[in-house]
């Protein structure tokens, strides 16, 4: 039996999939995945750590770099982390 995927791994999978899409909905799919990730955690500190894990997980794949998608993901995650850090 396969183990259930963690919220971070589910989000990372969705972000990874969106990064390969060549359509205009990719950005919205990333935002939806991050919203779902954040809703899986109750405390702001947990959300910050989860967002960082997604960013680092995607970065390890070598695709964040200096691409438009990579910049979008990094800026989006950093903004969300800043929002949660003000609430922590």
Quick structural overview:
The chain is mainly α and 88 residues long. Helices cover 74% and strands 0% of the residues. The model has no long low-confidence stretch (mean pLDDT 89).
Task: Jot down its keywords.
mainly alpha
Write the topology of this structure.
Blueprint: H1 7-20, H2 26-39, H3 44-60, H4 68-87
Helix pairs in contact: 1-2, 1-3, 2-4, 3-4
Overview of the molecule:
- 74% of the residues lie in helices and 0% in strands.
- It is globular.
- The protein is built from 4 helices and no strands.
- By secondary structure, the protein is mostly helical.
- The termini are far apart.
- The protein has a domain at 31-87.
- Helix 1 (7-20) packs antiparallel against helix 2 (26-39).
- The chain has helices spanning 7-20, 26-39, 44-60, 68-87.
**Pairing-aware structural class of the strands and helices?**
mainly alpha
Strand content: under 5%
Low-pLDDT stretches are none
**Approximate helicity band:** over 70%
Q: Whole-number average pLDDT?
A: 89
Biggest beta sheet attributes: none
Tally of individual helices: 4
Terminal CA distance reads 37 Å
Shape: globular
């Amino acid at each position: 039996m396969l183990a259930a995927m963690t919220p971070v791994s589910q989000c990372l999978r969705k972000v990874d999939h969106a990064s390969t899409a060549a359509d205009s909905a990719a950005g919205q799919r990333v935002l939806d995945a991050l919203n779902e990730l954040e809703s899986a955690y109750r405390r702001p500190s947990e959300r910050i750590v989860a967002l960082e894990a997604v960013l680092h997980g995607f970065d390890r794949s070598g695709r964040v770099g200096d691409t438009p998608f990579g910049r979008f993901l990094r800026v989006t995650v950093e903004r969300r982390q800043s929002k949660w850090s003000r609430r922590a």
